[in-house]
Amino acid sequence: MTDGRQPLFSTPRGSARGGVPDDELRTAWSGWLGSLRAHGLDPSPVLRPGAAPTMLAAAEQEIGTALPEDVRALYALCDGQEDPDEVGGPVLFPAHAFCSLARGLDAWRAGAPGAGWPLAGDDRGHLLRIELGSPGGRVLADGDERPRELAPDLVTYLGLLAHARLELPDARASGDAAWDAPTLR
């Protein structure tokens, strides 16, 4: 591949290749979900089952490159989230819903593939993306002119979220599970 992205299956892959997330990602994800719970936001209703290795391989085949290991591991744990408005529960990223592989592929097809994998999106079409081809896959936010780096990799980003001061609107008491961490979106 000549565009600088990692070719499919060119190097030995970690445990996520077999569908079992690695401990570092599992710990970061659990810590983040625990932080949401500690803020009174139960993510259980929106969590989807993990994606099968065949689903991950098909997504990678379509985009023409491998997803970073941490991203693969996250999708092996949880294939995005259900619509919070339909099932109740919070968005899983700051003002953004975690894209399932299918929703990520839809956004990939509709947008600029060179901008990275669509990890999470909001109602206005803004995305959190994972840079493809970079070591670890930097977490990027759509910017006015160009993407802005939020973290060097997904595990670091989840750790930042777990320790962030979340903005929780007063409407939360009425069942609105909206929240934000503006510096992390």
Broad shape: globular
* Secondary structure: helix percent: 25-40%
The overall pLDDT average reads 82
User: Which architecture name does CATH use?
Assistant: 3-Layer(aba) Sandwich
Radius of gyration: 16 Å
State the CATH class.
Alpha Beta
- Please identify the structural class as seen in this structure: alpha+beta
Runs in which pLDDT lies below 50 for 5 or more consecutive residues are: 1-20
Q: Please state the oligomeric state of the protein chains shown.
A: single chain
Largest sheet: 5 strands, antiparallel
Order of strands, widest sheet: 1-2-3-4-5
CATH H-tier superfamily = SMI1/KNR4-like
Helix count?
6
What is the number of independent domains? 1
- How big a fraction of the residues is strand? 5-15%
Pfam family, one: SMI1_KNR4
Region (Disordered): 1-22
Protein name: SMI1/KNR4 family protein
Domain Knr4/Smi1-like: 50-160
Description:
The chain is of the alpha+beta class and 185 residues long. The chain has a five-stranded antiparallel sheet. α1 runs parallel beside α6 (154-162) and α2 runs parallel beside α5. It has one domain (16-184): SMI1/KNR4-like. Mean pLDDT is 82; it is low at 1-20. β2 and β3 form a beta hairpin. The chain has six helices and five strands; from the N terminus they run ααααβαββββα.
